[in-house]
Amino acid sequence: MSARRSIEVVDLVEAAREGPGHPGSARAVARLISLVEDASGVASQTLREVMAALSPYVGHAHVIGLTGAPGVGKSTTTSALVRELRQSGKRVGVLAVDPSSPFSGGALLGDRIRMTEHASDPGVYIRSMASRGHLGGLSWSTPQAIRVLDGAGFDVVLVETVGVGQSEVEIAGLADTTVVLLAPGMGDGIQAAKAGILEIGDLYAVNKADRDGAAKVRRDLRSMLALGTRPEGAWRPPVLAITAQSRDGLDELAAALEKHRAWLEESGALTARRARRAREEIEAIAVAALRARWQVQGSDRLDELAAAVAGGVLDPYAAADELIG
Length: 325
Ligand SMILES: Nc1nc2c(ncn2[C@@H]2O[C@H](COP(=O)(O)OP(=O)(O)OP(=O)(O)O)[C@@H](O)[C@H]2O)c(=O)[nH]1
Ligand SMILES: [Mg+2]
Prior knowledge:
binds magnesium ion, 54% helix
């Protein structure tokens, strides 16, 4: 809230942007993510300051969402993909969002173990995030954490999230490119149709291609995708086969991601997607700010007006005018 805090935030953003080789850089990134994670919603002055300090630098990163059922191999794939991206010199930030953390417990530890190969690489930043207060969805601070990594200069931001309901739909809303991971032996065909993943994937990867049934999952998915009609010039999601454990097919996955990013840019879809996302964000912030304004000193203005309308004292239009006026 103070001027001192503003200076601190600006310094942190500067330190974060110094990048690999600067020992304070990763610490500054971590601190910024903690600040946005701890911020208390729309009214948070800190959150506003962090977002304002970052805004000149965001929009460069390729934001990739990776989703799929529990155990399908998301963390193994993420780790293998990070390695692939590092080979082409890209700086990679990873957010492992665990929507089920209050119940599962072990997943984050598993993620950490599978990511250890990158622990000493300064070009990689990995952060696990719980999603407090959003059952089955992403944490509300996920988009802000993505902004921190983008603003800090990471070329790619990978967001891993378990597909257990709303979260895969939400990640598709946040990412430039959404990768849906499947694997044999998980009842995928029906699962896929149920979860609505046929609408959200820009890329599909059938992992555990070393196992029986992977080819069938791939075939089934391809024919399900072929049923939907796509307009002329639309992106056609490829269905890849990978074995994350041995890194087979990871080069193709990286190439497909690159291709999708290029398509997004050439077609204008990137600008359109990001504008739509910004629109939703602005709307959500504005509505939250309005709501906060209605709640004055423990009483809810909306409740009072609702009572007046229900009691025939006021009509709803006059009440709405009074609310936003
Ligand atoms: N056979 C085989 N097993 C794999 C492959 N990739 C991952 N696994 C195994 O599948 C299990 C789950 O892998 P994870 O990467 O933790 O899967 P996840 O989707 O991140 O799991 P959650 O985060 O718990 O939802 C582990 O035992 C991996 O070793 C693969 O390509 N082939
Ligand atoms: Mg995982």
